């Protein structure tokens, strides 16, 4: 791991910038008129998120390609007696998740702007951005825990305050469920630090130090389960997903984008960053379990999505399937599978953000998410329909669009390491087309009745918001090399780390030349 | 001359891009002319590349890979966006771009005054770009991009008239059936990559002999699953007849001439691997023969002119797979090219008829059209005789080639093939006789009261019934009109090609090399039929001719005087062997029930029931219930924020220099 201290604390600023924006938004004087307040907080939100985006782009530009270690690290002893430090760093695994967060928040804030009490909404959303960025950049487990739990609060208030339907129930369920998971993680974190202390005499929560702790396999398994409890709920991984359809359906558009596109990735990111780094042997041992849950999520999510009438719930179940793909990519424990998993996290974030924006706009026009009440929208709203088509096709995994690249790498990596899981997962490719095309046909095909025929097409403002996402969808689909080149070295290091700990490569080698001479593997 | 090969793909793609931006502004007909120009440019680029390839000595130097950029690279996988120019890919590219140009031209006339005219050509250009990428891809993965691209365009174009529910459903159906096949394509790629460490054709072929028989068989069967989806073979064929919901030029281009032959191309491309998998070959040949027979029987009993031609396509594709399975790849390609001409022609001719009769598609309401549409009738006859296998038209030579090879390798399958040939001659003649000869039934509205129109799905039946209830398409004094010149030119060109395409590969040595012989280095000349004696070939050829004339004669006797013969059109055949009903019973309904069960019972009651139950139990257990609901959680959450804000403030004092 290379430590490099730049002159300017980029990452610290990146995390604090939205937090400062949140405070500013909260401090907007109440004496001014409602309209002025709305405009002012909107401006604060937009400027803050755009500054954050600019900084994130700068970090990406500065990022050294080919270096798999943590870059631009920033480390300050903080509560020394407690072993907690302010330790931030970025590597190929977190880089694009940071960039994704920075790209999506201005879009979510603008595309999902609220009319009531905008001050609090903007403040909560900015605080959420700070929490997400902090989680992706933390290299201290307690620091990660703080940011990880910090994200719960804004989402709770955003759903409860600006949501739809049975929003307070959904918000409470979301909060308690994910909080319960993270409580288990906190216990595991403390236990790990205590074990490390007993071995080295140093009480620390620093990830890099903790990675060198010697753990018996049974300890590893227990701690792994503690960490994974938090991540599996957050992602969510089947069968810990039932909060998500309720929460997605209840959340306002901006909240749904943040929740599904970014916060879901905290779970899968946590698995990669902490489970694989800290408990490599348990990871290898428990891989079949997680692979099974991932595959179950793919098939189950698709099957249940087939009977959803509410577009948001449909997307929630489709998301369960996509996260299943990410999980199996991670637990394939091969470079291609894991790199595909990281890429798929970014891709899924872009795609689902675009979907939630689009169906949010459909709701604004038609006041419903029920596909049975929508019909023939393609005629009155062709640009909306075309945007939806592109995003839908990316979600289905059409080659040439971004979803395919991640999915293909995941399935390929998994097939080589765990063939039959990949075979079942490939069935998900068929199923996802089934429900998305069905939903599209219901909403956009056919002859629009009088109400639907009045649907407005996308405005310029909306077009400008969705266009960057569509450009990214096409760009990553056609030329993913710049992204993969930055992800792969870090993934290689991580796979090598797991292989070292277990003493054998988790994934078999590819091809005949690599196989033992004279021996060929045959189909069973 | 080969270095400009990328233009073959890039020109139609550029046409697509321009139409996305400017399509609406260009409008009817300029958007159509622009699209036609882009595809014609692609055809010219293909001809130039072809000439460049021919100028090289035969052998390895006629195999050129061009890589443009690294597409996906992670771990052991490196895939370049590149094209492979070799005799096989160029044969495909030539006829794909050539036929595409003609059909683009035809569409300018056919789609005139359609409200989404520019969008039609936008999809059509994207289709050609995808199809060219499919045939030219340098690796399985690049081919897969084109493979999915053509499937997508097929979906768009079938559902082109998306306001009709039947069209929207047919588009979706095509996409789903293709996706089932795509899963096979993906798994085949994974397997071959695991065993060879590459996805490029050259790399895989270099390792082809190292593959164990089991792996080769599995990979070939998975690829055949993909091919069965794309090329409408048993059991994945029911989407193709429904695809006739799309505009007729689409049926001609995508669902007859080009896209549906992609499966045949894929297996021919993979012939070095397929050659080592004898079990897979037998499966492919058997399924091909069975599909040929089933498709032909159904075509005998359809009333919709496009449905007859569609089932004929299913059947002809079956012949191509029979050829692939017997190892006669060259025969498969020969039939594919000939079929592209005569089937494209038959569809365009049908389109001309439909156009002339103002959207009438029911054969039973046609008749006597030869008088009113002479050009269509003459060109249609060329396609009819070619399809029926009348010597010396292209179909006779191409189908004969397939059957000779089948005779040499799998005699049982040859018997099925020859029976199918008789059926083919019969149904194609029935089609021509009902449409172009006899009484002009479109004049009388009572002719519409015939037997219920054939259909493959309940939705289509309802649609057809609705169409029947509408008054006659033509007014009593109106007469069918011949096609405009943009539609006539492609008809004539294709009629000549369908007549003469047999010259590509005549079975005797005339002193000139057979043009298709240039494929030999790709496939190796391993034709079983090559070992047959001249006498055997003559006998087989005579049998083929007799069967063709027999089928035509039978149809002439049966259909010349009447258009009502319910005994010859049993419900079993009209309803497509009840395949759609069978799938619905076996997969559709149980699947729907399973999904409802998973959603309602497993998800809501079991999984979420536990979660909610735990929540309720905890709340009910203590007095926390009321506090939780009256803002306890709210205070708690705010507490977290407050704590964290304080922590951050504390940190700031430490961190900031």
State the gist of this model.
The complex is a heterodimer of chains A (524) and B (657). Chain A is mainly alpha-helical and 524 residues long.
Describe what this molecule looks like in 3D:
The complex is a heterodimer of chains A (524) and B (657). The longest helix of chain A is centred in the middle third of the chain and has 34 residues, at 167-200. In chain A, a hairpin with a 4-residue loop joins strand 1 (71-79) and strand 2. Chain A contains 21 helices and two strands. Chain A has 524 residues and is mainly alpha-helical. Helices cover 73% and strands 3% of the residues of chain A. In chain A, helix 7 packs across helix 10. The two termini of chain A are 41 Å apart. The relative contact order of chain A is 0.10. Chain A has a domain at 301-524. Chain B is mostly helical and 657 residues long. Chain B has helices spanning 7-54, 87-110, 117-136, 140-158, 165-196, 201-206, 213-230, 239-242, 248-257, 262-269, 271-274, 278-299, 305-325, 329-356, 374-388, 394-409, 411-436, 458-469, 485-500, 520-523, 534-559, 571-574, 579-621, 624-655; strands at residues 64-74, 77-85. In chain B, strands 1-2 form a two-stranded antiparallel sheet. Chain B starts with 6 loop residues before the first helix and ends with a helix. Mean pLDDT of chain B is 86; it is low at 446-472.
């Amino acid at each position: 791991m290379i430590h490099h201290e730049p002159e300017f604390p980029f990452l610290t600023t990146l995390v604090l910038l939205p937090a400062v924006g949140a405070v500013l938004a909260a401090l907007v004087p109440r004496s001014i008129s409602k309209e002025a307040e709305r405009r002012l907080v909107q401006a604060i939100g937009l400027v803050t998120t755009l500054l954050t985006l600019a900084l994130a782009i700068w970090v990406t530009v500065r990022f050294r390609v080919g270096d798999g270690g943590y870059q631009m690290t920033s480390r300050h002893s903080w509560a020394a007696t407690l072993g907690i430090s302010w330790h931030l760093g970025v590597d190929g695994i977190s880089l694009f998740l940071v960039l994704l967060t920075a790209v999506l928040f201005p879009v979510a804030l603008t595309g999902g702007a609220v009319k009531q009490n905008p001050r609090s909404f903007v403040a909560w959303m900015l605080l959420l951005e700070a929490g997400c960025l902090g989680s992706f950049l933390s290299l201290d487990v307690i620091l990660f825990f703080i940011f990880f739990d910090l994200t719960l609060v804004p989402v709770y208030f955003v759903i409860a305050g600006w949501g739809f339907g049975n929003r307070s129930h959904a918000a409470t369920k979301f909060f308690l469920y994910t909080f319960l998971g993270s409580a288990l993680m906190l216990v595991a974190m403390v236990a790990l630090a205590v074990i490390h202390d007993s071995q080295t005499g140093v009480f620390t929560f620093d990830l890099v130090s903790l990675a060198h702790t010697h753990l018996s396999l049974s300890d590893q398994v227990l701690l792994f389960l503690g960490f994974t409890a938090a991540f599996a709920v957050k992602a969510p991984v089947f069968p810990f997903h039932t909060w998500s359809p309720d929460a997605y359906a209840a959340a306002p558009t901006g909240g749904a984008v943040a929740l599904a596109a970014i916060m879901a990735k905290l779970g899968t990111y946590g698995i990669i960053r902490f489970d694989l780094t800290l408990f490599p042997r348990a990871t290898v041992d428990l891989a079949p379990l997680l692979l099974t849950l991932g595959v179950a999520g793919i098939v189950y999510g698709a099957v249940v999505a087939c009977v959803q009438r509410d577009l948001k719930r449909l997307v929630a179940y489709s998301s369960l399937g996509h996260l299943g793909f990410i999980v199996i990519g991670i637990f394939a424990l091969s470079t291609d599978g894991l790199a595909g998993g990281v890429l798929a996290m970014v891709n899924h974030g872009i795609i689902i953000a675009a979907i939630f924006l689009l169906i949010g706009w459909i709701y604004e026009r038609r006041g419903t998410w029920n596909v049975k009440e929508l019909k023939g929208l393609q005629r009155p709203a062709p640009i909306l329909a075309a945007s939806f088509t592109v995003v839908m096709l990316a979600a289905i995994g059409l080659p040439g669009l971004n979803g395919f690249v991640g999915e293909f790498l995941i399935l390929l990596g998994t097939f080589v390491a765990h063939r039959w899981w990949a075979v079942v997962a490939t069935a998900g490719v068929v199923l996802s087309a089934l429900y998305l095309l069905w939903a599209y046909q219901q909403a956009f095909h056919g002859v629009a009745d009088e109400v639907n025929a009045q649907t407005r097409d996308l405005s310029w403002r909306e077009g400008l918001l969705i266009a960057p996402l569509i450009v990214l969808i096409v760009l990553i689909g056609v030329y993913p090399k710049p992204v993969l080149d930055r992800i792969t070295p870090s993934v290689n290091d991580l796979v090598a780390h797991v292989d070292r700990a277990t003493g054998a490569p988790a994934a078999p080698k590819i091809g005949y030349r690599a196989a033992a001479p004279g021996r060929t593997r045959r189909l069973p | 001359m080969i270095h400009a090969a990328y233009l073959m793909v890039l020109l139609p793609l550029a046409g697509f891009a321009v139409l996305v931006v400017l399509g609406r502004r260009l409008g009817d007909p300029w958007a159509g002319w622009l699209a036609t120009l882009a595809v014609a440019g692609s055809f010219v680029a293909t001809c130039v590349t072809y000439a460049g390839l021919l100028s090289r000595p035969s052998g390895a130097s006629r195999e050129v890979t061009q890589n443009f950029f690294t597409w996906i690279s992670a771990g052991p996988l490196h895939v370049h966006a590149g094209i492979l120019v070799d005799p096989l890919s160029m044969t495909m590219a030539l006829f794909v771009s050539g036929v595409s140009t003609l059909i683009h031209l035809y569409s300018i006339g056919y789609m005139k005054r359609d409200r989404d005219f520019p969008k039609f050509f936008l999809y059509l250009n994207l289709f050609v770009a995808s199809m060219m990428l499919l045939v030219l891809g340098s690796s399985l993965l690049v081919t897969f991009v084109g493979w999915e691209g053509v499937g997508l365009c097929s979906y768009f174009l079938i559902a082109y008239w998306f306001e009709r529910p039947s069209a929207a459903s047919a588009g979706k159906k095509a996409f789903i059936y293709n996706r089932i096949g795509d899963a096979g394509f993906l798994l085949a790629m994974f397997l071959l990559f695991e065993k060879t460490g590459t996805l490029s054709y050259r790399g895989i072929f270099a390792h082809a002999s190292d593959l164990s028989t089991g792996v080769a068989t599995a990979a070939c069967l998975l690829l055949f699953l993909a091919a069965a989806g794309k090329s409408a073979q048993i059991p994945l064929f029911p989407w193709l007849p429904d695809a006739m919901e799309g505009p007729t030029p689409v049926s001609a281009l995508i669902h007859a001439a080009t896209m549906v032959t992609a499966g045949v191309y894929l297996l021919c491309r993979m012939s070095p691997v397929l050659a080592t998998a004898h079990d897979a070959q037998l499966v492919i040949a058997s399924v091909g023969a069975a599909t040929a027979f089933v498709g032909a029987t159904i075509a005998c009993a359809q009333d919709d002119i496009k449905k007859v031609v569609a089932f004929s396509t299913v059947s002809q594709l079956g012949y191509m797979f029979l050829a692939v399975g017997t190892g006669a790849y060259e025969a498969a390609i020969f039939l594919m090219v000939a079929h592209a001409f005569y089937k494209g022609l038959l569809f365009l001719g049908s389109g001309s008829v439909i156009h002339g009769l103002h959207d009438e598609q029911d054969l039973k309401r046609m008749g006597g059209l030869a008088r009113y549409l002479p050009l269509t009738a003459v060109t249609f006859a060329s396609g009819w005789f070619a399809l029926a296998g009348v010597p010396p038209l292209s179909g006779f030579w191409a189908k004969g080639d397939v059957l000779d090879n089948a005779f040499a390798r799998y005699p049982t399958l040859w018997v099925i093939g020859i029976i199918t040939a008789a059926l083919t001659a019969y149904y194609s003649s029935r089609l021509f006789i009902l449409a172009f000869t006899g009484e002009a039934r479109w004049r009388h509205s009572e002719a519409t009261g015939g037997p219920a129109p054939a259909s493959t799905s309940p939705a289509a039946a309802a649609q057809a019934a609705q169409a029947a209830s509408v008054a006659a398409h033509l007014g009593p004094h109106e007469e069918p009109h011949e096609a405009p010149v943009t539609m006539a030119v492609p008809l004539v060109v294709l009629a000549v090609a369908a007549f003469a395409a047999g010259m590509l590969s005549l079975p005797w040595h005339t002193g000139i090399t057979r043009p298709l012989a240039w494929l030999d280095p790709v496939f190796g000349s391993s034709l079983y039929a090559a070992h047959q004696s001249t006498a055997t070939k003559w006998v087989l050829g005579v049998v083929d001719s007799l069967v063709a004339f027999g089928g035509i004669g039978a149809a002439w006797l049966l259909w010349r005087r009447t258009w009502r013969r319910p005994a010859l059109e049993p419900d079993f055949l009209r309803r497509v062997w009840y395949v759609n009903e069978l799938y619905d019973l076996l997969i559709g309904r149980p699947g729907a029930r399973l999904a409802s069960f998973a959603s309602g019972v497993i998800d809501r009651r079991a999984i979420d029931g536990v979660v909610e139950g735990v929540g309720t139990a905890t709340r009910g257990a203590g007095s926390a219930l009321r506090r939780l609901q009256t803002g306890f959680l709210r205070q708690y959450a705010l507490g977290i924020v407050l704590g964290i804000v304080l922590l951050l403030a504390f940190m700031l004092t430490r961190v900031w220099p």
